[in-house]
Description:
By secondary structure, this protein is α/β, with parallel strands linked by helices. Helix content is 45%, strand content 16%. It has helices spanning 13-22, 64-74, 88-93, 96-123, 125-130, 163-182, 204-214, 233-246, 263-277, 310-316, 324-337, 339-347, 349-358, 360-364; strands at residues 3-8, 28-34, 54-58, 78-81, 132-138, 186-191, 194-195, 218-221, 227-229, 231-232, 252-255, 260-262, 292-295, 366-367. The longest helix is centred in the first third of the chain and has 28 residues, at 96-123. 2'deoxy-thymidine-5'-diphospho-alpha-D-glucose (DAU) is lined by residues 86-88, 138-140, 192-193, 203-204, 207, 219-221, 226, 228, 263, 298, 305.
Amino acid sequence: xxxxxxxxxxxxxxxxxxxxxxxxxxxxxxxxxxxxxxxxxxxxxxxxxxxxxxxxxxxxxxxxxxxxxxxxxxxxxxxxxxxxxxxxxxxxxxxxxxxxxxxxxxxxxxxxxxxxxxxxxxxxxxxxxxxxxxxxxxxxxxxxxxxxxxxxxxxxxxxxxxxxxxxxxxxxxxxxxxxxxxxxxxxxxxxxxxxxxxxxxxxxxxxxxxxxxxxxxxxxxxxxxxxxxxxxxxxxxxxxxxxxxxxxxxxxxxxxxxxxxxxxxxxxxxxxxxxxxxxxxxxxxxxxxxxxxxxxxxxxxxxxxxxxxxxxxxxxxxxxxxxxxxxxxxxxxxxxxxxxxxxxxxxxxxxxxxxxxxxxxxxxxxxxx
Length: 369
Ligand code: NAD
Ligand code: DAU
């Protein structure tokens, strides 16, 4: 049986990894609903752009009529909801877009899904029985472990620090409420920091690679002793598909890589890899690490995140396949091999690419593969 996946935010960093992986599964049709914000790049999916089992729909998840239309037209079996504003620093500078997309957008999607699912119960009870909506969330909803030895479990109380984290926490609450009150078959995952190919270069690792190659300062916030638990994006994509297809409805699963590293150590490791993989340094740079610069800290900066992923490992048999060493090496090499991609997504030239490869429709409407 062919399973129809509706993925929101599929042109983003993690969403594109999910879609690339789904298309490796023979019996999967994929619909990608994305607004194409600055963070959405269809070029990340160029390998499957003309695949007849893939469809791109240019739409905003906050648009109720468009969302109903998407459900009505594509009749998904599984929804994987990744569309979001995702950058903490941007949420501090301008929270409005985070409230709109992460909270109102999730609400709008839930209502469209509920309308579709209620209809299915009448028209196709077997399909209704199998329907599920998987909401992709973050470990930032749990707040700050503040240097303690504890790990985030699925029952850790929510205590978000940033506008981004608070908006994601709100969206998680909405999803749980729609399950409890309306019985909508939902699942939630909360994951730690991802890294890997196609990561927009505003986030720590790609920003450091890009700046180092340009001979620019490597800005480390505060003292750089904040700890994040890094997971290679393709491991996350595998975990998400496992939860969406095999997870128990109503449940939450934490996902993490068991890779707790301080920010300063991350930047130092990036520099070491660049010394080895790109020894031809920009003019005036003796060692990449000389570019490390301590700058003002992020307001409300969480000191430590770390995930207890034992539930997904035990119940669904998922384990990460990359260590931080192997994943970071692949990532640095990918960025060195794809400096053009980085320049295009940061210069806005990728929009020209979209128009060339998808035509006007991709920008204003839907492209049906
Ligand atoms: P991203 O910023 O790279 O991509 C987000 C995508 O959503 C983009 O393609 C963007 O165009 C799209 N989008 C934004 N607003 C939209 C709207 N209103 N309607 C339709 N599409 C819209 O994000 P990411 O890093 O790939 O994260 C994906 C999801 O995973 C997010 O929900 C995020 O909270 C969650 N998450 C991310 C991480 C991480 O480390 N990056 C970790 C855990 C969870
Ligand atoms: O934990 C999961 C979260 O990880 C996701 O939900 C978010 O969508 C994702 O963006 C990421 O959030 P972070 O804030 O942890 O990621 P970021 O790459 O922005 O920063 C990682 C750490 O590095 C953080 O402690 C801040 C620090 N940092 C970041 C940048 C961009 C710096 O020291 N300097 C920088 O220039």
